[in-house]
Design a protein that fits this description.
This protein has 148 residues and is of the alpha/beta class. It has one domain: Response regulator (Rossmann fold, 3-Layer(aba) Sandwich), CATH 3.40.50. Helix content is 41%, strand content 16%. It contains six helices and five strands; from the N terminus they run αβαβαβαβαβα. Strands 2-1-3-4-5 form a five-stranded parallel β-sheet, sandwiched between helices. Strand 3, helix 4 and strand 4 form a beta-alpha-beta unit. It starts with 13 loop residues before the first helix and ends in an 8-residue tail after the last helix. The relative contact order is 0.14.
Length: 148
């Protein structure tokens, strides 16, 4: 009788097997749809809002792993949203990547001061954005506690 040993598959932690969620806050619905489609194909769960205040509510209730935020929103500006996210204990550890076409002299400094992790100028390379998203999630995974 031949007996073969079968290796036990590696056990993965809940954190490693959990799908990552990305919140998109952008007033351009077509941009949201294209970005959502691309992120879902990469295995992310996606939620979105075209309004800043609604996006803040989603961030507080859904606790996404990362937020993609536009600066121009119909009800408030993205810097205000970013500041509120950074100032709240419930959302301060969520990395924020600002995606914007604004080209003002102090835009990068203002975004960093508001609490964003990265600034990506529109139009952007979608493949580079995917790499940046993964890097931001990985970099903050150790200090971004997930609520139970």
């Amino acid at each position: 009788m031949n007996v073969e040993l079968v290796e036990k598959p590696e056990s993965r932690s809940v954190e490693e097997t959990r799908r990552r969620t990305i919140l998109i806050i952008d007033d351009d619905q077509s941009m949201v749809e294209v970005l959502s489609f691309r992120l879902k194909r990469q295995g992310y769960d996606v939620c979105s809002s075209t309004f800043g205040r609604e996006g803040l509510g989603l961030a507080r209730s859904d606790h996404p792993d990362l937020i993609l935020l536009d600066l121009r929103l119909p009800d408030t500006d993205g810097l205000t949203v970013c500041r509120e996210l950074a100032d709240s204990p419930a959302t301060c550890c969520i990395p924020v990547i600002i995606l914007s076409g604004l080209d003002q002299p102090d835009i990068l400094r203002n975004c960093r001061a508001a609490g964003c992790l990265y600034f990506v100028h529109k139009p952007y390379d979608p493949n580079a954005l995917l790499v940046l998203i993964e890097q931001a999630i990985t970099d903050t995974a150790d200090w971004n506690p997930r609520p139970e």
